[in-house]
Amino acid sequence: MNVNLVEIQSKSRLTLENLFPYYIYDMSEFTGWGPTKDGHYDTYNPANLDIYWSSEEHVPYFILADNELAGFVLIRKYPVDRTVYDIDQYFILRKFKKQGIGKEALKQVLHLYPGKWQIRVLKENTGAFKFWLSAVSEIVGQKYVSEEDIDVDLLMNFIRFEVAPQTA
């Protein structure tokens, strides 16, 4: 399957906003978030995405699989340490899971942004943690650190590593 990253332009922002409730729904297994009385998962504020079109330290991408929308990845410089890239949000639609799309998209992200990286995973999300450890080890081998740390006020699993620029 052909996997591509496409930077999300502001004109396509609504598509990202439309995907977000599916992401929230997937995360509800670990966060306990429930739908509204109307049955919507809208526990996020779309204004929180504004920074992805107003700051050079935040970049949004759609993940395409054979030119079909398969998910998104939101990349940022970590607010606590701006020398570190951070996967702010990462989402693959269920239809595309377990096909290598998430791993391939990560490889492309890391190729575009060499340097220090971290990936934060909710402690309860053991499936995602296993995925990230596997994906990162395929790229950097055992040259990563996995540890618990605090993100704002939440104890999470952090995976930290560095990616060298690719030479031609």
TrEMBL record:
- GO molecular-function term, one example from the UniProt record: acyltransferase activity, transferring groups other than amino-acyl groups
Q: Which Gene3D superfamilies match?
A: 3.40.630.30
Which Pfam family is an annotated match for this chain, by its short name? Acetyltransf_1
InterPro entries per the UniProt record, alphabetical: Acyl_CoA_acyltransferase (IPR016181), GNAT_dom (IPR000182)
PROSITE patterns in the record, alphabetically?
GNAT (PS51186)
> Can you give the residue ranges of the N-acetyltransferase domain?
3-159
Name of the protein = N-acetyltransferase domain-containing protein
Which organism's genome codes for this protein?
Answer: Vibrio aerogenes CECT 7868
